Amino acid sequence: MTMATTLASCLDKRQAQFDTVRHPYSLSSMATAHAAHIPGDRLAKTVLLEDEKGYVAAVIPSTHHLKLSEICEQTGRKLSLAHEDGVREVFRDCDLGAIPPVAMAYGTQTWLDDSLLAHSDVYFEAGDHQELVHMSTEQFMALMADARRGHFAHRMM
């Protein structure tokens, strides 16, 4: 699989400057960081949440855990992890577990954890398990301009 069509369209529309990084097939964000030889705290992980109002995507560093209670407080919603069917429904052109952070391009409200912006560059899934998008944090912030920001992730011990 190549880059997800929706992601490619979003990057083009925003005139984003980026490159791609191929890596051996991996199924978890930490395994992806290891396979791609990149720092895990620079790899964005997207977690899809849901409630009766719909879906919310939370974007955090792969080295962090999502604090569900904190994002619920910040959003004012009673969110839980989305079921696999929901992930497939929202991110139709992506492999399960390889969803990009630009969930707003998929019609989904997106929240970005500020801890992801602490470095000079960011990597994220391109929609499959073998390719990452790499860009400067400045470009990433421009790409994610429609996302809401907060602090709802904590580094794993």
TrEMBL record:
It comes from the Bacteria. Residues 30-141 form the YbaK/aminoacyl-tRNA synthetase-associated domain. GO terms for molecular function: aminoacyl-tRNA deacylase activity. Signal peptide: none annotated. InterPro entries: YbaK/aa-tRNA-synt-asso_dom_sf (IPR036754), YbaK/aa-tRNA-synth-assoc-dom (IPR007214). This is YbaK/aminoacyl-tRNA synthetase-associated domain-containing protein.
